[in-house]
Amino acid sequence: MPMNEEPKWYILHTYSGYEAMVKDSLEKLIENNNLGDYIVD
Question: Does 41 have pLDDT greater than 80?
Fold first, then answer.
């Protein structure tokens, strides 16, 4: 992400009990597509 660009925020809704599965899926997607530079905590 360019230094002068502000991150965008998104809300993700999940069903109760599926939070960990969604988190793991997102982390794998980020890693597999080399998107780590575009994702902030």
Answer: no
Beta-strand (E) ranges in the chain?
Answer: none
Looking at residue 38, what is its pLDDT? Answer: 87
The model's pTM: 0.70
Instruction: Tell me how far apart the alpha carbons of residues 38 and 21 are, in angstroms, rounded to a whole number.
Output: 21
Cα distances from 29 to residues 3, 17, 24, 38, in angstroms, run 23, 20, 9, 12
Give residue 5's region: left, alpha or beta (phi > 0; psi -120 to 50).
Answer: beta
Section 10-14 average pLDDT: 90
